Amino acid sequence: METDTLPADQELLPPVASSTVRTVNGIDVHTVAGGDGPLVVLLHGFPECWYTWHGQLETLVDAGYRVVVPDQRGYNLSEKPQSVRAYRLPDLARDVVDLVATEGRTSAHVVGHDWGGVVAWHLALRRPEVVDSLAVVNAPHPTVYRQHLLTNPEQLRRSWYAGAFQLPWLPERLLRRSDFALLERAVRGTAAPGTYIDETMSYYRRAWERPGTLTAMLNWYRAVLRYPPTYPERRVRVPTLVCWGDADVALVPELAIDSYHSCSDARLEFLPGASHWVPHERPERTTALLCGHLDRSAD
Questions:
Q1: pTM for the model
Q2: Catalytic residue among 65, 75, 145, 221
Q3: In this predicted model, what pLDDT tens digit does every residue of 84-140 receive, in sequence order?
Q4: Domains and CATH numbers, the chain
Q5: Annotated catalytic residue: which of 71, 114, 248, 258?
Q6: Is 148 left (phi over 0), alpha (psi -120 to 50) or beta?
Q7: Could you report how far apart the first and last alpha carbons of the chain are, in Å?
Q8: Is the dihedral of CA 93, 142, 180, 56 positive or negative?
Q9: In the annotation, is 141 catalytic?
Q10: Which of 122, 276, 280, 293 is catalytic?
């Protein structure tokens, strides 16, 4: 089911796209979509929204793809279930499966950054029949990440915030202080200078201040510890692109290498000097890598 275009996003929409709300997996999900052709689903991560992919959307449409970019559940204009349980990875992945179905398709090329990449990995491992190809940007294979947390002290140190997010109410209060100063510092302060312009940060702050959003975003972290997913095997068998900014302050580069080695048919591309926020920081290179990957996967 779809409703009309949402004026709140109209100002930032590329001319090739429209903004609707679709009911998937029992919740309302705001979605930006455009183009015709093979279906590509772009999934954002924490603490962003569909706008993560604004630098890629129009070029992918012009390249002949049907591109669908949701605000994932809990984010921005999408519905925000209250319980932690509602953010288990199987439910997050089911949202994408149902979103693909709203396009009248049974499968799609799935691209994810950060938490969007975690959902994408989960789909490739648990629902490979839905995934024509996989592309992940600074998001580790889930089994690889778990292994590094247990064996790599540097990765454990970098992941401290995920433990802090398990606390009730306090993270929300701290993140909301001073007009979301900590969240802005986590994004803008760890990216290359000039990556996040004032217009982008203003839009993100507007998304963060929507009722229930902070708790919903943090519940992704809470749910993955309370309801850890399991996987029947480690190897991903769909064509895969692993794209990685090697100056990521949260994730060590070794995660990219080990994730690549967990795939049967994969390509690994490091972006030297790039931060965690690759789609924003290196938009042209990200788009070129995605177009090349999609073209090869379609052959």
A1: 0.96
A2: 221
A3: 999 999 999 999 999 999 999 999 999 999 999 999 999 999 999 999 999 999 999
A4: 7-298 (3.40.50.1820)
A5: 114
A6: alpha
A7: 33
A8: negative
A9: no
A10: 276
